[in-house]
Amino acid sequence: MADQGSHLGLTGMLLLLMVAWLATVDAESYQKFLRQHVDYPMTQVPEAQYYCNLMMKRRNLATSGHCKHLNTFLHADTASIQAVCGQAGDPTTGDLRESHASFPLTICRLQKGSWAPDCRYQGISGLERIIIACEEGYPVHLQTEVPGY
């Protein structure tokens, strides 16, 4: 007869490993969100037109092999953005939440005819509400901006 204690110990160990793995996945998703979408305080550049070119390269969103077509940088502190996952946002669909407040942001759009490795972007700054996906109370994906608010 098999030792039940060893089976329970193995099951418990597997459960702990799974929880640790999920926590790592959430932490990695949050860190990726921060890298791709948060620039606070906003990086200063000599000329505003160069902001997107600099930031897309700096955050590895424009590389020698690939140009991301569209990306939004939020210019707000992480606590304000994270609050959208709680009291500062309303649920929409699935794990998405829409912010009550507007956030300063810059939308970087790849210019037509621009290809890797020479990715060139046009930036548009604004103040918009946002829709983000949250996991375990942390933002992990910027779905969109809500224009006109």
For this structure, what is the CATH homologous superfamily? Answer: Ribonuclease A-like domain
Structural class: alpha+beta
Write the element-wise H/E pattern from the N-terminal end onward. Answer: HHEHEEEEE
List low-confidence stretches: 17-22
Helix content: 25-40%
> In the residues, how many domains can be counted?
1
Multimer state = single chain
Number of helices: 3
Question: Which of globular, elongated, flat, extended, rod-shaped describes the shape?
Answer: globular
Quickly give the CATH architecture: Roll
Biggest β-sheet, characterized? 6 strands, antiparallel
Quote the average pLDDT: 86
- What is the straight-line distance between the termini? 68 Å
Number of strands: 6
CATH class: Alpha Beta
Rounded radius of gyration (Å) = 20 Å
Task: Report the sheet-strand fraction.
Answer: 25-35%
* CATH fold field value: P-30 Protein
Which features does this protein show?
single chain; 149 residues; alpha+beta; P-30 Protein; 6-stranded antiparallel β-sheet; 3 helices; globular
How are the secondary structure elements laid out?
Layout: H1 4-37, H2 51-58, E1 70-74, H3 78-82, E2 89-91, E3 96-99, E4 103-110, E5 121-135, E6 138-146
Antiparallel strand pairs: 1-4, 2-3, 3-5, 4-5, 5-6
Task: Describe, in plain words, how this protein is organized in 3D.
It is a single chain. Helix content is about 30%, strand content about 30%. It is α+β, with helices and mostly antiparallel strands and about 150 residues long. It has a single domain, classed as Ribonuclease A-like domain (P-30 Protein), CATH 3.10.130.10. Strands 1, 2, 3, 4, 5 and 6 form a six-stranded antiparallel β-sheet that branches. A hairpin with a 2-residue loop joins strand 5 and strand 6. The chain is globular, with a radius of gyration of 20 Å. The termini are far apart. InterPro entries: RNaseA, RNaseA-like_dom_sf, RNaseA_AS, RNaseA_domain. GO terms for molecular function: endonuclease activity; hydrolase activity; nucleic acid binding; RNA nuclease activity.
